[in-house]
Amino acid sequence: MIVVVAALKGGVGKTTTSVYLAAVAWSSRRPVTLIDADAQASAAEWIEQADAEPLDAVTVVEAPTTRLLTRALGRIAPDEVGIVDSPPGNERMLEAAMSVADCVVIPTRVGGVETARAEAVFDLVPRKTPAGLVICSARTYTRDYQDAMAGWREAQVPVWGSIPERVTIAAGPDAYLAPDGLDSYRSVWRRALRSVREA
Ligand SMILES: Nc1ncnc2c1ncn2[C@@H]1O[C@H](COP(=O)(O)OP(=O)(O)OP(=O)(O)O)[C@@H](O)[C@H]1O
Ligand SMILES: [Mg+2]
What are phi and psi of 48, to 5 degrees? Predict the structure, then answer.
């Protein structure tokens, strides 16, 4: 199963989402490979630095070009989970990954411009491939968040989950995975699995 974490915008939460989803996917005891398609290799570094399960059980493949990405995707076995962390602003790589994806997870944030950027990513997803939004670093208690959620609902855009804004999640590789981050991403993972089953 191939899950592509896709956004055109930088700094929305692609790497954080990819790493947490890899951790959560591993709990289902399927082998997990994280394909890091971003030349910055921040997901690869994060996972390589981990010295405890689940992250140290995740295989990392660095694939910073479309050619390497396509090759890495071709090597994901049917019983395996492959999660792609993508670079910002690279439509070509996103399209290459999405063409073989079982589902697409689109991290975004609350805010006017963000909405248009996330919609642009939905437009790149192949028609039959399920896709859903993850609202990253969400201030769920704010009016802005409530309004944004209402807007997505009205536009009938699937929201697979919201991840609360937490310093423990922002700590990235410098701290261990935050329990509430894992809980939130676990529910995103379940939604993604369900969407694949129903596709
Ligand atoms: N739930 C959260 N709470 C607080 N901070 C968060 C949360 N999720 C992500 N962040 C922070 O937001 C910043 C951007 O996240 P991340 O690096 O995952 O985004 P990205 O889309 O991969 O960025 P880039 O485009 O640079 O690759 C990081 O500093 C990260 O720690
Ligand atoms: Mg990143």
Answer: -65, -30
Contact yes or no for 2/73 (Cβ under 8 A): yes
91-150 pLDDT, tens digit per residue, is 999 999 999 999 999 999 998 788 888 999 999 999 999 999 999 999 999 999 999 999
Looking at the CA of residue 88, tell me the nearest atom of ligand 1: 25
**CATH code: domain of residue 135:** 3.40.50.300
Of all protein residues, whose CA lies closest to atom 5 belonging to ligand 1? 170
The domain tally of the chain equals 1
User: pTM of this prediction?
Assistant: 0.98
Tell me the residue range of the domain where 81 lies.
Answer: 2-198
Q: Which residues surround ligand 2, an ion (CB under 5 A)?
A: 14-15
C-alpha to C-alpha distance for 119 and 65, rounded to whole angstroms? 25
Work out which ligand 1 atom sits closest to the CA atom of 172: 31
